[in-house]
Write a structure and sequence with these properties.
The complex is a heterodimer of chains A (257) and B (260). Chain A is mainly α and 257 residues long. Chain A is built from twelve helices and no strands. The radius of gyration of chain A is 22 Å and the shape is globular. Chain A has helices at 2-6, 8-11, 16-36, 44-56, 60-91, 93-108, 111-122, 126-150, 154-162, 167-205, 210-219, 223-252. Chain A has a single domain, classed as MetI-like fold (Orthogonal Bundle). In chain B, 32% of the residues lie in helices and 23% in strands. Chain B has a six-stranded mixed sheet, sandwiched between helices. Chain B has a three-stranded antiparallel sheet with strand order 2-1-4, covered by helices on one side. In chain B, helix 7 (190-196) crosses helix 8 (227-239). Classes of the chains: A mainly alpha (257), B alpha/beta (260).
Chain lengths: 257, 260
């Protein structure tokens, strides 16, 4: 690590650039926790031990799995519906006008309101939970994809028309690739927003999941548990980013030189 | 045999400005027709109408294949820019336009076609990795690979340096003589038109119509430097000094075959 830090030029390009900053944060946290000796700030070592115990002795995997399942379903539904809506609004002026005020409305209703209303209207069910999350995310995807659809190059669509490409080829080979940057933008945004909302949903009306567990820890003032669960989730997000999103993105962007 | 007959009575832009008025001409199957006119003469609009990209006009455009062939005529369009999909490799860009119907006729394998247009082994490169001239070659091959009946070209070699444009014009003539589609080649360069076409249509300024229909009876292939091309160019500009501005000089026009 020292040698990497010394050669400043290569540092920002190397893989250490991703690893060192979090390590610095952890060290800072450890020092602070040891110095303060406060019950409300356990040191990272203790959190790691807690994570270990929850992982092998407790129910962390179960709750994490439930949460991830909800995140996955809500994510897929929100991306599909939001993308469809965004493309519709970006490519058709009349639809844009009709739906625009709904979009602004949906974008600005607080997540808490939709969650509570969904629980009241649809009962304390899994469906209500997923609806509440997707309703919160769909307008954000739609807004971003609408920009993308508006920026689509008409010249390339002319090529598709002249050469009589099928609708399917036109969509997947000419249209969709132009939306990819917007799709990735909303996917990243989406994951972060969705898992935040899923936790609130779980806290308010589910009897399992990370949100439910964190609610329990809150009652017992178990800060170590809260941080251990958070850490577990952060690691999952990092893994998704490193193993899924980033490789996929660099594969799809390989033509940019 | 008349293959294409165009009769645009009126084409107006969205802003109400009249682009084309009473423009009519026809082209034989396998004929190479150049269309020359001042900038803003609605040349691109005309090609868009013929390609069916734009359908708002008064008039008619007929493209008939004759009795021996069924179905719609195949049209290719080479635009001012190469307009390749930057996210698809050269091979994918070409395969994209090969519909099942074309595939049946296609006998030459893709790598051989790439070699034919001077891009051997470039199939897996992306358009961004090619020079402007090479991208034009891919676009040219894309236009010919579907074996079109009608090929529309909109100043395709405009922004290239002279030697590259020269090579591409030779390649175009080579490809054209293999399958002999009808070509409408829009350009504002009279030399380029003379060096390529069997016939040149000169357009007036806005609203445009055909002011001169000139057959070019020279041997193919030609280049811009050929003395016959140079001579015809000089002769035309002497006879009609304002031809490229979209006007026939009244004194000299009496003897030529002026289009109605």
């Amino acid at each position: 690590m020292q040698s990497a830090l010394k050669s400043g030029k290569t540092f920002a390009q190397g893989r250490w650039a991703r690893i060192v900053p979090p390590l610095v944060l952890v060290v800072f946290w450890q020092v602070l926790a040891v110095a303060l000796q406060s019950r409300t700030l356990p040191p990272p070592t203790e959190v790691l031990v807690g994570l270990w115990q929850e992982l092998f002795g407790g129910d962390l995997l179960f709750h994490l799995g439930m949460t991830l399942g909800r995140v996955a379903i809500s994510f897929v539904v929100a991306m599909l519906v939001g993308t469809g809506l965004g493309i519709l609004m970006g490519s058709s002026r009349p639809w844009d006008r009709v739906l625009d005020s709904f979009l602004i409305l949906a974008l600005n209703i607080p997540a808490l309101v939709t969650i509570i209303l969904c629980y009241i209207w649809f009962g304390l069910s899994e469906t209500a939970a997923v609806i509440a999350v997707t309703v919160n995310k769909i307008p954000m995807v739609a807004i971003s994809l609408r920009e993308g659809a508006r920026a689509v190059d008409k010249n390339l669509l002319q090529v598709a028309r002249v050469y009589r490409l099928s609708r399917r080829d036109t969509f997947f080979k000419v249209y969709l690739p132009q939306l990819l940057p917007y799709l990735f933008g909303s996917a990243r945004n989406g994951l972060s927003i969705i898992w935040k909302i899923v936790l609130v949903v779980e806290l308010l009306g589910r009897s399992n999941g990370v949100g439910f567990q964190i609610g329990n820890f809150f009652h017992f003032f178990d800060i170590k548990g809260i941080l251990a669960y958070t850490l577990a989730f952060v690691m999952v997000i990092f893994i998704v980013e490193a193993l899924l999103l980033r490789p996929l993105e660099s594969y799809l962007n390989r033509w940019r030189t | 045999m008349t293959f294409l007959s165009v009769d645009v009575r009126k084409k107006t832009y969205a802003n109400g400005c009249c682009a084309i008025e009473n423009l009519s001409f026809s082209a034989q199957a396998g004929e190479f027709v150049a269309i020359v006119g001042p900038s803003g003469a609605g040349k691109t609009s005309l090609l868009n109408l013929i390609a069916g990209l734009d359908q708002e006009m008064q008039g008619s455009i007929d493209c008939s294949l004759g009795p021996q062939r069924q179905g719609q005529p195949r049209i290719s369009f080479m635009f001012q820019e190469p307009r390749l999909m930057p996210w698809l490799s050269v091979r994918q860009n070409l395969e994209m336009v090969i519909t099942p119907e074309v595939q049946l006729k296609q006998r030459t394998p893709l790598p051989d076609l790439l070699a034919l247009v001077g891009l051997p082994g470039c199939g897996d490169l992306f358009p961004g990795q090619l020079s402007g001239g090479m991208q034009r070659r891919v676009a040219l091959l894309r236009a010919f690979i579907v074996e079109p009946d009608l090929l529309l070209m909109d100043e395709p070699f405009q922004s290239l340096d002279a030697p590259t444009a020269h090579q591409l014009r030779l390649l175009l003539q080579d490809l054209w003589q293999r399958t002999r589609p009808t070509v409408l080649f829009v350009t504002h360069s009279l030399r380029e038109a003379i060096s390529l076409a069997d016939r040149i249509l000169f357009l007036s300024g806005q609203p445009s119509k055909v002011i001169l229909d000139l057959p070019v009876e020279l041997q193919h292939p030609r280049t811009i430097e050929d003395s016959a091309v140079q001579k015809l160019h000089e002769h035309l500009l002497n006879q009609y000094p304002q031809l490229l501005g979209g006007q026939l000089a009244s004194v000299a026009s009496a003897k030529e075959n002026v289009a109605p």
